[in-house]
Amino acid sequence: MSKLKLALVLLLVLIGAVIAFHQSIISAVILPQYINWASDTEAAGVQQGEPLNAAQLEIAKEIGIKQPEKVRLVYVDAVPFPYHNPMLKLVGEATGFIGEGVINNAQVFGYSIYVRKDYPLTTPKLAHELVHVLQIERASLKQVITQHFADLLKYGYDNSPLEREAFEANKTYGNR
Ligand SMILES: [Zn+2]
Q1: Which of 56, 82, 110, 138 could be cross-linked to 37 through a Cys-Cys bond (beta carbons 3.0 to 4.6 Å apart)?
Q2: What is the pTM for the complete model shown?
Q3: From the CA of 62, how far away is ligand 1's center (Å)?
Q4: 25 CA distance to ligand 1 centroid (A)?
Q5: Are 145 and 31 in contact (CB under 8 A)?
Q6: Model confidence pLDDT, tens digit, residues 81-116
Q7: CA distance readout (Å), 129 to 54, 56, 95, 170, 172
Q8: Torsion sign (Cα): 143, 147, 152, 158
């Protein structure tokens, strides 16, 4: 076998391994980087965001958040994403999480709820995001990101258990 052929075979084996183990590679290598970035994003949001008003605090309590006074609303031009990290950007694009025409209206990082300025955060929509805060308060940001990522691959966005739970709040608070 020529050296070139050998190199090609090795490359194919490598690609095969990456495809076969992509989920564990993502979990082991890429996910921790996202989790670190998300923790920093939560910390930054807690610093710059605004606390819930009295009516919003009531909803947070009703939903079951133990420390609703910690929640911050962070209004931004665009919900942040770690674009500076090429691997995360690649995974984000491959999963349709970011990319042309994709708009992320709101995302929860622990006690920080990042909301796009032009997005009307109605009561049912706030309630939905508060359920995500509750999910993270119940477990941890790391645990929720890890579970949610595995769920997205398994069930897709609409049917992922954490989203289904949050969409229940859209119904409950639909008329408020
Ligand atoms: Zn959601």
Answers
A1: 82
A2: 0.85
A3: 18
A4: 25
A5: yes
A6: 999 999 899 888 988 889 988 999 999 999 999 999
A7: 17, 12, 21, 9, 13
A8: negative
